[in-house]
Amino acid sequence: MRLGPGLLVTAAFIGPGTITTASVAGANFGFALIWTLLFSVVATILLQSMAARLGVATGLDLASALRTTIQTPIFKALAAILVISAIGIGSAAYEAGNLTGASLGLQEIMPSISPILWTPLIAILSAVLLYTGKHKVIEGALIVLVVLMSLVFISTLVMAAPPLGEVLKGFIPSLPEDSLTTVLALIGTTIVPYNLFLHSGVLAEKHDSSKNIDKVIKETNLDTSISITLGGIITLAILSTASVAFYGTDAGKISAANMAVQLEPLLGGMAHYFFAIGLCAAGLTSAITAPLAGAYAVCGMLGWSTQMSNTRFKLVAIVILVFGALVASLGLDPVAVIIFAQAANGLLLPIVTCYLVWLVNQKSVMKGYTNSLLLNLVIVPVILLIFGLSLYKLSNLIF
């Protein structure tokens, strides 16, 4: 088997936002919230495997399946507005953070170069990769970055040498005081709605009815499980390193931007560069995958081609990238747009999750590749938690 599509999902959810969230979790609560990562990884594997199976078995990405199976015009229009708002505009809003994170990493490594230059250079590099429209080129670049990111963060974990007993205790569910927001943030930064569109879209484009579908699904499930587990290990490494370095100390406000510098007293001068390289790789991977996910969602809902080589598809991805680059380069405040995107995502995630589960249980769509009864029973608590997460996120944004 060949790893590839699953690593796109890992590349997408391990970005500057995940690094920040995991760093804050470790700094504020030590190892106590590791159980949250385990839950998030299992839930993400379940949902992403369903989205992948949809693409493999039907040749349809999630957005196209949503558009073609909703028959009522008003509901179809509402679905299109919600998906384009949450995924299209949301991807553009988060793109600014991805580019900024990659720029911060490079600035830490090469401080003599003006930080003003980094964002446009990274945006141009990402745009060139996206405009090739070639799966192998884009996947190859992302695989290299994910491997680099893995080596960097796992190396910093080894250098930090967290006590194994404390790490293992973290797998026992607990809720320290004032930790609920961080728990939900860790889950929300791993179970990402646009990854369902991205994963199904990439595999739908590779759909080949002449292949042994059962075999392809098994290979895809393995790819998904390995790739997302790797993402979980990276997040665990960041959380554990932050816990060793900052938990129980008066370290001030921890973020992805300053953690690289603050690790230096504990891990030595090289750790500063290690973490900066990891931050740069995380920003780059998300900077490439966010426009792809947005393009799959927008083009699928509008009935346009979702082939990565299609000019219209590439232009949608580039527009998302350019918007993010402008916000990052001009120092504009993306907060209003991100709040809108978060509200739309909070509403979209449970709807898309329920729709995806419904869809992969329809024999008329999936033929012989529907969910098993056991899988449906296992996914119920995941859906309930996603509803709770979304309601909490929306209530915080509104009130």
From TrEMBL:
Transmembrane intervals: 32-56, 77-96, 116-133, 140-160, 180-204, 225-247, 273-303, 315-332, 338-361, 373-392
Superkingdom, taxonomy of origin: Bacteria
Compartments, as annotated in UniProt: Membrane
Record keywords, A-Z: Membrane, Symport, Transmembrane, Transmembrane helix, Transport
Membrane topology: Multi-pass membrane protein
NCBIfam families: Nramp_1
PANTHER family xrefs: NATURAL RESISTANCE-ASSOCIATED MACROPHAGE PROTEIN 2, SOLUTE CARRIER PROTEIN FAMILY 11 MEMBER
Protein name in UniProt: Manganese transporter
Species in which this protein is naturally found: Pseudoalteromonas gelatinilytica
Gene encoding the protein: mntH
